[in-house]
Give the backbone structure.
Amino acid sequence: MAEQFKNYSVNDFDKFDCVRLSKTFYLALVFLLRGYVVWLMSVTNFQNTTGIIQTIYPDPTLFYLNLVSGCLGLFVLLMMTLRRPEAAPWVKKCWPHTLTIILVALAIDAAIVGIGYSVFQLTAFSGMLIQAIGAVLCGIICLFSKRLKINLQEFPEPLP
């Protein structure tokens, strides 16, 4: 057990003696929640609240589909924010399965973009290809992240 922590310094641990969350988590969340990120950027732009959305998503249907595909990402974000010693039992039970949830969310996201392209012609082929490659790369990075695996094995517990 101590072998897996030998490459980490004191600064790599949080106040509950758990390894700080991997940047891979944040990468996956930004990718999965990109529709929500665009929406927040447009809401905070007081001069043109829909301009950013219309620039990135010329067809509003694709924007709404990205919001739907990001729902599992919202669930992962919720679990990350509730990850503390006094967390509800469901958070403790779901936490070890977070990688599976992320991978399923990435697959659903890629499928929605693929369906949006092939059935409804909502995006260009290059846009669909970029998003599919992004989902695959994000999934591979998550699968091979050692720090992410450590994060999923640990859960904060109260310190004496």
Observations:
- The radius of gyration is 18 Å.
- The chain has a mean pLDDT of 90.
- The chain has nine helices and no strands.
